[in-house]
Amino acid sequence: MMRVFMAIHCSLLAVCSVSARNRRHEGTDRQAAIYRLPLFERAVRCTKFFEGWHSEKHYPYVGYGHRLQPGERYSARTMTKRQADALLRKDLRKFCAMFRQFGKDSLLLATLAYNVGPYRLLGGGKIPKSTLIRKLEAGDRNIYREYIAFCNYKGKRHAMLLKRRKAEFALLYVP
């Protein structure tokens, strides 16, 4: 009786480990698929994933995190996913143009600016220019630490923002 039980138990463990290994490889294939996309599409998908959908309770943000500007008449109640996608792409292009002088880092900076605001990077008023921008202006592209440092919310380190920064850097940094 004990031998039969052990044989069944070992068979069950073998089947479970094989199915778990197959699931792990499927996840890896799906994760690798994003690296086959163009950089701009990676930025869009990454932003959509981390921003999520902004409803009426997130005012003045609509769609996938677009901050309403004076004179804009977008409504979270009536906005469609297609409109939000177009607005996100428009915003990312605008920020890319703002950081065009940084060449291949412009999309990475645009994605960061979409979340934290361009003034946090470029400075303005009482806010000094970020260390990240100063380092890039000096020609130093070793910016990983400076990039992921933008993970604070209300003065405290936020684990989800750190995860987001690491994902953005992995997806969008071009060596």
Any descriptors?
4 strands, mainly alpha, 175 residues
What is the succession of H and E elements? Answer: HHEEHHHHHEEH
Taken from the alpha-carbon principal axes, the silhouette is globular
Low-confidence stretches: 4-25
User: What order do the strands of the largest sheet run in, or round the barrel if closed?
Assistant: 1-2
From the N-terminal CA to the C-terminal CA, the straight-line distance is 62 Å
Helix/strand-derived category reads mainly alpha
Largest sheet: 2 strands, antiparallel
Query: How many DSSP E strands?
Result: 4
Gyration radius from CA atoms, angstroms: 22 Å
The percentage helix is 55-70%
Mean pLDDT: 85
Strand content: under 5%
Number of H- or I-type helical stretches = 8
